[in-house]
Amino acid sequence: MADTPQAPRRARLELLVRHEGETEGFEVREIGSAVAFIRSRPQRVPDGSYELAEVASRVDGHRRFILKNSATDRFLLISEPERFLWEQMDGSRSLQEIATAYVLKYGEFDFDVIPQLIRKLQRAQLLTQTPTSRLRKALARHGGQRMAQMAESALTVLERINISSRNVQDVFRRAYRFGGFCLFTPAAAVLCVALAAFGLLAAIRLWPDAERVVSGFGKSPLMAVLSVKALFLVTVAAHQIVHGLALVHYGRRVREFGFTFLHGFVPTFYVDVTDIFMGTRRARVVTAVSGALVHLVLGSVWLLLALRATPGSFFQAFAAASGIIQWQAFVVALYPFCFIEMDGYHVLVDVLGIPTLKQDAIQYVGALLRGAGIRRFTRQEALYVGYVAVSAVSVAAFIAFNVWMIAHAS
Amino acid sequence: MGTPADSVAFLRNMRLFRNVDDADLATFAGSLREQPLRRGQILFREGDHGDEMFLVRAGSIVVSKAVTGRIEQVLARMGPGDFFGEMALFDRSARSATIQADTEVTLLVLDRDALARLTTDSPRAAAAFFQSLVHVFIERLRASGELVAEVTRWGLEATGLDVESR
Question: Buried b / exposed e across A162-199, counting CB within 10 Å, b at 16+?
C-alpha cells in the first residue's frame, strides 16, 4: 500500500521580544506562518491607482470585472465574489475577518479563493503595505515628534497584549454539561424576563431618590464611577463565556477565548464564535443575544440590591451605578445603530443579508457628502443613509448621557 | 565554584576535548575561570567587542540577533556542554549575536592568552581541540543554512506570495 503523502510542516519563527523599558526582561514567542497569514491585513493600492470595470457575459449571465493597475497597465479578470473580496481588502480587516464576511455573503466555505486572489493581486502589484488604523496613520505622519513616538510605542505594547487559548472547547463543553445548559431552557428565559421586570420596578422606585442614592459615593464620586467601570470589565468575560456556551448548545466549536486590547486601547475579553456560521439563523441570533442578556440580568440584580440597601449608603450608590452601567451595556450590545459591530449589529446584518452594511453605508454617505455623483437612490441606498443617520444620532445621545451622568455624579 | 577535578570531568564530556589527554586537559582546565550569570543577564550584545569564548557549564542561554526594534530572532539555545563566542576569539571581530541567560547560568571563560598557551605548551592537544572545533563549525554552518531556508519558507507562507508563477 502506498504511503499517504503528508502535508509539509508549516514554518515557525522563534522571536525574542524585549520588554519595553527593561534592559533584561524578555520573552520568546513562537509564531507559525499560518497564524501570521490569517492575521495579515491585505490592503489594496490607493483609490486612483486602479480602475474597475464590469463586463457582463452574454453567455452565462455571470458578472465579471476587469481590474486594472493604472501604474503598470496590468489587467486582471475577477469574478463577482473576488470583487467582493477586493473591496474588503482596505487594510483594516484581517484575512480571518474577510473570510467571515465572504461566508456571510455567499454562504460558501471555499476559502482557497482568498489566497488565490491574493496571489493574483500580488502579481499585478495591486496590494500594498501601509499603516492600517486612522490613529496609526496619524502617528506615522508625525513620526518625528517625541509624543507621537511615545504614543506609537504605547499602542504597540497594548496591541501585543493578548492572553488567549485555542484549547477551550473542552472547558466550555464541561461548563455546559455542569450547569451551563440551564441558561438555554425556557425556565431561564422566564427567569430572565421576571428579573428584568423586577429590575425595572426597582429602577422606577429608586429614581425619585436618585440624588440621595448618588450621594452615597461621598467625596470621590469620580473614583467610584471608575471602580464601577472596572468591575464591569469583569462581567464582559461572563458575556463572552455565555456566547461560548451558546455555541456548545448548538453543537458548534469555540475556537478561542482570550483577553486583549481592542484597537490598542480598549481592554476586553473575546470569544471566537465564527463556527456558528455553520449553524442556523436561529442559532446565530440566540448566540448573539445570549451574551448581552448577561448584562440585563446583572443590571437587574444590582438594581434590586440597590433597592434593598441602606438609603444613602456607599453600597446603594455602587449597586445602582453598576445596575445602570450593566443595562447600558445591554442596550449598546443589542442596539445595532452605533457604528460598532456588536451583537445587535450582527443580528441586523444577518437578517438584512448585508454583511458589510456599516462599511458600505459609510462609504456611500461619505461619497454623498463629498458631492460625488450618486445616480440612483434605491431602497438599499435609503437603508445606508438611514443607518448612518440613526447611528450618528445614537452615538451623540450616548455620549451626552454619559457626560450628564458623570457631571451629575460630580 | 567547582573544583579543578570537577572542571576536568566536565571538559572530558565535551566534544571539543574528546581527543585531548588527561594531563593536557588538567592544565587547560586550570586556565579557565568561572563566570556566573543571573537569569536574564546579558553577557554581551551584538556589536560588542570581545576576545573570549565561553563554555556553558550549567544552565541555559539564548543566542539572538537583532531584527527590528525590540524584536530579535532566536538563533539557538545552548545548554551544558555547548560553547559560543569563539568567532571573536579568532578574528577579533565584533560579536555577531547577543547572549542572554535564560536561567541561572555558570560559564567557563577561555581567553586568547589561555588558548595561546595551549597551542605553545601542548601542540598535540591544541590540534585535537581545533579539529573538534572545525567539526562543530561545519555543523553550525549546515544549521545556519537550514535556518535561512526555514525563515524564507516562513516569509512565503505568511505572505501567501506565489513565487513559482511570477
Answer: eeeeeebbeebbebbeeebeebbeeeeeeebeebbeeb
Residue percentage of chain B with pLDDT more than 70: 94
Minimum CA–CA partner of A114 in chain B:
B160
| A213 or B63, greater pLDDT | B63
Asked if the model's pLDDT at residue A2 lies above 60, the reply is no
Q: Measured between alpha carbons, how far is residue A144 from residues A133, A148, B47 in Å? A: 19, 7, 26
pLDDT at A4: 47
Cβ proximity of A55 and A65 under 8 Å: yes
3-state secondary structure of B34: strand
Is B150 in Cβ contact with A16 (below 8 Å)? Answer: no
As a whole number of angstroms, the distance between CA A226 and CA A50 comes to 48
Name the nearest CA neighbour of A292 among A341, A258, A321, A335.
A335
The residue ranges of DSSP E strands in A109-238, in sequence order, are 127-128, 162-165
Q: Indicate the angle between helix axes A281-308 and A314-334, nearest 10 degrees.
A: 160
Give the start-end residues of each E strand in chain B.
33-37, 42-44, 52-58, 61-68, 71-78, 83-84, 98-101, 105-111
* Residues of chain A with C-beta less than 8 angstroms from the C-beta of B162: 119, 122-123
**Half-sphere CA count of A237, side-chain side, radius 13 A:** 9
A395: pLDDT strictly greater than 50: yes
User: Minimal Cα–Cα distance from B43 to chain A, Å?
Assistant: 10
Report the DSSP beta bridge partners of residue A167. none
B25 and B14 Cβ atoms separated by less than 8 Å: no
Of the given ranges (A363-372, B59-68, B98-107, B134-143), which has the lowest mean pLDDT?
A363-372
Question: Cα-Cα-Cα-Cα dihedral of B20, B22, B28, B30, to 10°?
Answer: 160
Which chain A residues are closer than 8 Å to B42 by Cβ?
Answer: 23-24
A1, pLDDT greater than 80: no
Least confident range of A150-159, A197-206, A395-404, B85-94: A150-159
pLDDT in tens, B84-116: 998 888 887 889 999 999 999 999 999 888 888
Classify residue B109 as exposed, middle or buried by CB count within 10 Å of its CB (0-12, 13-18, 19+): middle
User: With pLDDT > 90 as the criterion, what percentage of chain A qualifies?
Assistant: 23
Mean pLDDT estimate for chain A: 81
The helix (H) or strand (E) run that includes residue A63 is strand A63-69
Cell (9 digits) for A136: 496609526
Rounded Cα–Cα distance for residues B137 and B146 (Å)? 14
Residues of B numbered 112-151 whose beta carbons fall under 8 angstroms of chain A's beta carbons: which are they? 150-151
Q: Is the pLDDT of residue B165 over 60?
A: no
d(CA A289, CA A276): 13
